[in-house]
Amino acid sequence: MKFTKLVPNIFYADINMGLRLFVDCLEFKIGHDELTAAQPFCALDKDGLGLLLFQDAEFAAKDRPELRLLTNDIDEVYRKVAATHPQYLHPNLNKVTLRPWGAREFALKDESDVCVIIQQW
Fold first, then answer.
1. How many Cα atoms are found within 13 Å in the side-chain-facing hemisphere of 108?
2. What's this model's pTM, rounded to 2 decimal places?
3. Which of 11, 15, 27, 93 could disulfide-link 59, Cβ–Cβ 3.0 to 4.6 Å?
4. Distance CA 116, CA 121 (A)
5. CA dist list (Å): 15 to 7, 88, 112
6. CA gap 18, 5 in Å, rounded
7. Are 22 and 28 in contact (CB under 8 A)?
8. CA distances from residue 13 to 2, 30, 45, 67, 87 in whole angstroms, order as listed
Protein backbone atom coordinates (compact mmCIF):
# COMPACT_ATOMS: atom_id res chain seq x y z
CA MET A 1 0.00 0.00 0.00
CA LYS A 2 1.38 3.41 -0.95
CA PHE A 3 0.09 6.92 -0.30
CA THR A 4 1.38 10.03 -2.03
CA LYS A 5 -0.17 12.93 -0.13
CA LEU A 6 -2.30 13.77 2.90
CA VAL A 7 -4.79 16.56 2.10
CA PRO A 8 -6.68 17.99 5.10
CA ASN A 9 -10.06 19.70 4.83
CA ILE A 10 -10.30 23.11 6.50
CA PHE A 11 -13.70 24.73 6.98
CA TYR A 12 -14.34 28.45 7.19
CA ALA A 13 -17.49 30.49 7.75
CA ASP A 14 -15.95 32.80 5.12
CA ILE A 15 -13.51 31.03 2.79
CA ASN A 16 -11.75 34.34 2.14
CA MET A 17 -10.15 34.08 5.60
CA GLY A 18 -8.45 30.85 4.53
CA LEU A 19 -7.40 32.31 1.19
CA ARG A 20 -5.73 35.24 2.94
CA LEU A 21 -3.75 32.94 5.26
CA PHE A 22 -2.80 30.15 2.87
CA VAL A 23 -2.62 31.93 -0.52
CA ASP A 24 -1.64 35.50 0.37
CA CYS A 25 0.56 34.79 3.40
CA LEU A 26 1.93 31.25 2.89
CA GLU A 27 1.95 31.39 -0.94
CA PHE A 28 -0.10 28.28 -1.67
CA LYS A 29 -1.56 28.25 -5.20
CA ILE A 30 -5.18 27.55 -6.09
CA GLY A 31 -5.17 24.33 -8.11
CA HIS A 32 -8.95 23.87 -8.36
CA ASP A 33 -11.39 26.73 -7.91
CA GLU A 34 -15.09 26.53 -7.16
CA LEU A 35 -15.20 29.76 -5.20
CA THR A 36 -18.37 31.00 -6.91
CA ALA A 37 -20.31 27.76 -6.33
CA ALA A 38 -23.29 27.62 -3.95
CA GLN A 39 -20.95 25.92 -1.45
CA PRO A 40 -17.55 27.46 -2.24
CA PHE A 41 -14.40 25.37 -2.03
CA CYS A 42 -10.94 25.19 -3.56
CA ALA A 43 -7.89 22.95 -3.63
CA LEU A 44 -4.54 24.51 -2.72
CA ASP A 45 -1.03 23.24 -3.48
CA LYS A 46 2.52 24.24 -2.57
CA ASP A 47 5.73 22.24 -2.72
CA GLY A 48 3.88 18.91 -2.96
CA LEU A 49 1.53 19.78 -0.07
CA GLY A 50 -2.22 20.05 -0.46
CA LEU A 51 -5.19 21.56 1.38
CA LEU A 52 -8.88 21.77 0.66
CA LEU A 53 -10.69 24.89 1.86
CA PHE A 54 -14.47 24.82 2.23
CA GLN A 55 -16.95 27.51 3.13
CA ASP A 56 -19.32 25.94 5.65
CA ALA A 57 -20.15 27.90 8.80
CA GLU A 58 -21.60 24.88 10.62
CA PHE A 59 -18.45 22.76 10.25
CA ALA A 60 -16.19 25.77 10.85
CA ALA A 61 -17.85 26.34 14.22
CA LYS A 62 -17.20 22.71 15.20
CA ASP A 63 -13.51 22.40 14.33
CA ARG A 64 -10.60 24.86 14.39
CA PRO A 65 -7.62 22.84 13.17
CA GLU A 66 -4.00 23.12 14.13
CA LEU A 67 -1.62 22.26 11.29
CA ARG A 68 2.15 21.90 11.31
CA LEU A 69 4.39 22.81 8.35
CA LEU A 70 8.00 21.64 8.47
CA THR A 71 10.73 23.68 6.81
CA ASN A 72 14.49 23.58 6.37
CA ASP A 73 14.84 27.37 6.81
CA ILE A 74 12.53 28.63 9.53
CA ASP A 75 14.38 31.96 9.78
CA GLU A 76 13.62 32.76 6.14
CA VAL A 77 9.95 31.81 6.54
CA TYR A 78 9.68 33.89 9.71
CA ARG A 79 11.34 36.95 8.13
CA LYS A 80 9.01 36.85 5.15
CA VAL A 81 5.80 36.31 7.15
CA ALA A 82 6.76 38.91 9.79
CA ALA A 83 7.55 41.47 7.08
CA THR A 84 4.46 40.87 4.92
CA HIS A 85 1.73 39.49 7.23
CA PRO A 86 2.61 40.20 10.89
CA GLN A 87 -1.09 40.15 11.82
CA TYR A 88 -0.97 36.34 11.53
CA LEU A 89 1.80 35.83 14.10
CA HIS A 90 0.24 33.89 16.98
CA PRO A 91 0.37 35.91 20.22
CA ASN A 92 1.63 32.85 22.16
CA LEU A 93 4.43 31.93 19.73
CA ASN A 94 5.17 35.04 17.64
CA LYS A 95 8.96 34.56 17.45
CA VAL A 96 11.12 31.62 16.40
CA THR A 97 11.53 29.71 19.66
CA LEU A 98 13.50 26.61 20.61
CA ARG A 99 10.93 24.27 22.13
CA PRO A 100 11.67 21.74 24.94
CA TRP A 101 11.39 18.86 22.42
CA GLY A 102 14.27 20.28 20.36
CA ALA A 103 12.39 21.85 17.44
CA ARG A 104 12.46 25.55 16.54
CA GLU A 105 8.93 26.88 16.00
CA PHE A 106 6.72 29.89 15.52
CA ALA A 107 2.98 29.94 14.92
CA LEU A 108 0.34 31.70 12.86
CA LYS A 109 -3.32 32.19 13.72
CA ASP A 110 -5.96 33.64 11.44
CA GLU A 111 -9.07 35.56 12.45
CA SER A 112 -11.09 32.33 12.66
CA ASP A 113 -8.51 30.68 14.99
CA VAL A 114 -7.02 28.25 12.46
CA CYS A 115 -3.48 27.71 13.74
CA VAL A 116 -0.43 26.86 11.63
CA ILE A 117 2.81 25.98 13.42
CA ILE A 118 5.97 26.41 11.39
CA GLN A 119 8.66 24.00 12.59
CA GLN A 120 12.27 23.11 11.92
CA TRP A 121 14.05 20.19 13.58
1. 24
2. 0.94
3. 11
4. 16
5. 17, 16, 10
6. 20
7. yes
8. 34, 19, 21, 18, 19
Residue 16: strand pairing partners: none
Q: What angle do CA 76, 89, 17 make, to 5 degrees?
A: 110
Tell me the residue type at 107. Answer: A
CATH number of 9-120: 3.10.180.10
Determine contact, residues 95/81, Cβ cutoff 8 Å: no
The dihedral built from the CA positions of residue 110, 112, 115 and 116, taken in this order, carries a sign that is negative
Q: What is the pLDDT along the chain (121 residues), one digit of tens a residue?
A: 888 889 999 999 999 999 999 999 999 999 999 999 999 999 999 999 999 999 999 999 998 999 999 999 999 999 999 999 999 999 999 999 999 999 999 999 999 999 999 999 9
Please report, as a single letter, which amino acid is at residue 111: E
